[in-house]
Design brief:
Blueprint lengths: L2 H9 L9 H9 L1 E6 L4 E3 L7 E7 L2 E6 L5 E7 L4 E2 L2 H4 L7 E4 L4 E7 H9 L2 H27 L2 H16 E4 L2 E5 L4 H8 L3 H13 L3 E4 L2 E4 L7
Length: about 230
């Protein structure tokens, strides 16, 4: 991947979209390209946080393990997003595991030390980075409240709405969401069981609120989805 292509991808990331061309060139020169196959580990919990990742293509899930050994999905990363920046905000040790979902996941990687120095030299970018951390903290709090106060059906419907907002495409009055997640993944994300996910999706389909196949979900009317 040449510098020009890297600049294009970096410029589509909200954190970097206001950078001048010379700043994008400098940032692109710090990046390397890494490809991952399906279900490949990108990094593991307790690994040194030696690099920051920018997702170019595919989907990545950030996971941890429960005491019973069950996988818990904390976040689903879509293209044009940063992840794995523990070095900048914590103690330099990975607090979660990142795993590719698709068979063609592509990331730009920046050494954590290089990213830290780049932020030091750009106060405006540092402020945007801090706001991004604040937004993600609010998202984590909303997820926690959902797990505490909402039942399984509501959490699964929230998942559908959030994915439609982030990754959906308007088709007339309907919303088409293409994804690479299994029903077990959805269960691991929503704190439910695969059987519950299957029941809720089938019930929504029976009510003609959604139509789904293995890799896509069509939401008839997102405003009335319940």
């Amino acid at each position: 991947m040449d510098i020009s292509t890297k600049m294009t991808y970096l410029g589509e990331v909200s954190l970097f979209e206001d950078l001048a061309e010379n700043e994008l060139v400098e940032l692109a020169e710090l990046t390397s390209v890494k490809d991952y196959s399906k279900h490949q580990i990108i990094y593991r919990v307790d690994d040194p946080a030696e690099s920051v990742h920018i997702l170019v293509n595919g989907v990545v899930k950030i996971v941890s393990k429960s005491h019973e050994g069950r996988e818990v999905i904390k976040t689903i990363i879509h293209p044009k997003s940063l992840f794995g920046f523990e070095y900048l905000s914590l103690n330099g040790i990975r607090s979660n595991t990142a795993k590719s979902v698709d068979k063609n996941v592509i990331c730009l990687q920046i050494r954590s030390e290089d990213m830290k120095n780049y932020l030091k030299n750009n106060w405006d970018l540092t402020q945007k980075f801090m706001r991004m951390l604040g937004t993600r903290l609010m998202y984590v709090e909303r997820r926690f409240e959902s797990l505490v106060f909402k039942d399984a059906r509501e959490r699964i419907i929230d998942f559908l709405k959030d994915n439609a907002r982030i990754n959906g495409r308007q088709v007339g009055l309907e919303m088409l969401v293409k994804h690479s997640l299994t029903q077990q993944d959805i269960a691991n994300f929503t704190g439910t069981s695969r059987q519950t996910v299957t029941y809720v999706l089938n019930d929504l389909k029976r009510q003609n609120q959604i139509y789904f196949k293995r890799k896509s979900i069509l939401i008839r009317d997102i405003a009335s989805l319940c």
